[in-house]
Write a structure and sequence with these properties.
With 310 residues, the chain is of the alpha/beta class. The chain folds into 2 domains: 220 residues, Rossmann fold (3-Layer(aba) Sandwich), CATH 3.40.50; 66 residues, 2-Layer Sandwich (Alpha-Beta Plaits), CATH 3.30.70. Helix content is 33%, strand content 27%.
Length: 310
């Protein structure tokens, strides 16, 4: 059995003259948590929909679980779980009715289906909502129901498209706990997100922007390869002005506002006190510079600046 569950080469999708996904290539090993990271409109959902055969491929090729994405979409969809970005269950059915209906679609029945539904209701914390119509569920509960439905048939790989979009921090943490559990149980998870902080938990990450892959690797690898230097930060009330001035200081590879801080990458060999001295000379006030732990947001900013993308 191959150790790769997804193998994609030069995957491309065009909508008329618009190229939504442009020659994307990546591989996902069995059991990995694979993060597909990028801003809204970057091409994340389009890529997943091609992997599942929902959208035809314009160019390129790929396999999911050894099946060709161009010719074997039915075989792929029977073996994978998919939680789409948009709630796609039946709103006029209750939580239990949705679970039983989709369980039947996946070929489950009788005691086996009942047992699976009970397990997933407990796992996704749906107790007390079983008889409520889907249309009346709070957003977070709808997300949990969508996750439960995607796991009914014990899929080998689960595609989660923006599972934590527009939810509160507690639910984001809940979803990542479930993702870690799925990986520990041997399932492969491909999760799309535009939250840079949460995909730190992934084993491997692809950055996608404007339909093109910018970089791929583990969180640690990406930071070491694309942040040649040290991250620093200053606190200031004039974030935009400070960031703009720092960007012109020798040795500063990039500066951008982040919360109450302005973060910047200082290239090797430059004095950490230099940027603060330059700020004071310009009349801008800020706190003393302090070292900052590099993040994937820093990597994304560095990659975007290097490519000249906003």
């Amino acid at each position: 059995m191959s150790d790769l569950v997804v193998d994609v080469r030069d995957l491309t999708r065009r909508f008329g003259s618009f190229v939504a996904v442009d020659r994307v290539s990546f591989q996902i090993p069995r059991g990995a948590i694979f993060g597909f990271l990028g801003p809204n409109g970057a091409g994340k959902s389009t890529t997943i929909r091609m992997l599942l055969g929902i959208l035809p491929v314009s160019e390129g090729e790929g396999q999911v679980l050894g099946f060709d994405i161009r010719t074997s979409s039915e075989e792929i969809r029977a073996r994978v779980g998919y939680m789409s970005q948009r709630f796609s269950l039946y709103e006029d059915l209750t939580v239990l009715e949705n679970l039983h209906f989709f369980g039947g679609v996946f070929g489950l029945s009788g005691a086996r289906l009942d047992q699976k539904v009970r397990e997933l209701v407990e796992m996704t914390r749906l107790e007390g909502f079983e008889q409520q119509l889907a249309q009346g569920l709070p957003g977070g509960i709808r997300q949990r129901l969508a996750l439960a439905t995607s796991l009914l048939h014990d899929p080998e790989i689960v595609f989660l498209d923006e599972p934590t979009g527009a939810v509160d921090p507690a639910l984001r943490r809940y979803f990542w706990e479930r993702i870690a559990e799925l990986s520990a149980a041997g399932r492969t998870v491909m999760v799309t997100s535009h939250y840079m902080d949460e995909v730190e938990r992934c084993h491997d990450i692809c950055f996608i922007h404007h339909g093109r892959l910018m970089a791929q690797g583990s969180p640690g690898d990406l930071k070491s390869r694309h942040l040649p230097g040290e991250m620093w930060q200053v606190r200031t009330s004039a974030r935009a002005e400070v960031a703009a001035h720092l960007a012109r200081v020798p040795g500063v590879a990039g500066a951008f506002p982040s919360g109450e801080m302005v973060r910047y990458l200082l290239e090797p060999g430059f004095d950490p006190a230099g940027p603060a001295t330059a700020l004071r000379a310009s009349g801008l006030t800020c706190s003393a510079p302090e070292p900052a732990e590099p993040t994937l947001e820093d990597v994304f900013v560095a990659l975007s600046r290097k490519r000249g993308t906003p």
